[in-house]
Amino acid sequence: MKPLKIIMAVCFIFALSFPLAAEEYLDFTKIKGQGLFTSPDGKKYIGPMKDNNFFGQGIYIFPDGRKYIGTFKASMFHGKGVLYYPDGSKYEGDFVDGRYEGSGKMAYSDGKTYIGQFKDNKPCGEVTLTFPDGREYTGDFLNGCPRGRGVYKYPDGRTYMGEFQNGLYNGQGVLIYTNGRRYEGTFVNGKPDGNGTMYFPGGQKYQGQFSNGKRNGYGTLTFPDSSEYIGQFGNDTFNGHGAIIYPDGKKYEGRFIAGSPAEGNVILPVGWEEEKVE
């Protein structure tokens, strides 16, 4: 079994805040109602005013090309709005005090899209993340990264269902492979690690310990003909002390190296003589 190469970087990278205290940019002391206001450094606001603050439905344009269209409260983005970025990225949804907060959609210029709940400028709670290559994650986010329970689907058919932490498979989960294999058990940093069960398309089943994506430690491998290997594994194969038990009752017990018997005894059913393996 080859090492799993399934780690994905999916953490949210936009974490921006937009304080817009009007008094810092313009003198609104004598201006009321609606109009066009500009600041010396190129900021521009189009919309209504209340108590010398941006208020209601308006437009705010930044010198770097960002543009916000939506509602304001006390000179902050607050309520429903759309924030456009110069590179083509766009956030559309709820704002609270200048931050992404509530339901929203963040669409990046590279085709990556977040749809769901946001808090303090980051995805938080139930979110669906899609990639331009067809990958999709649906599940819990915390502080901009998948954390909690979720489902991660690949365009080639692989699917992971289970726990995430820091954007990686961590905890209990199920990984379904395109070749028919299925792993159920513990994951650490995106790979099977700890106790688990691997089902193979040919009918084999391994139950036991994994480390860094491979069978390492103590386990049981059951074959389609009901033969079993019970013992130690290393580097994804028989390594160390173990026993192979055959359906007819014959049993080999001894030491294995790299998947092959090294020395041990063949124990035959009652009525047979025991053979020594050199």
TrEMBL record:
Keyword Metal-binding on entry: no
Q: Where is the signal peptide?
A: 1-22
Q: Which SMART domains match?
A: MORN
Pfam families, per database record: MORN
Nucleotide-binding in keyword set: no
Q: Please provide the record's keywords in A-Z order.
A: Repeat, Signal
InterPro entries from the xrefs? MORN
Quote the PANTHER family the UniProt record gives.
MORN REPEAT-CONTAINING PROTEIN 1 (PTHR23084:SF263), PHOSPHATIDYLINOSITOL-4-PHOSPHATE 5-KINASE RELATED (PTHR23084)
Q: What's the name of the protein?
A: MORN repeat-containing protein
Q: Which organism is it from?
A: Desulfonema limicola
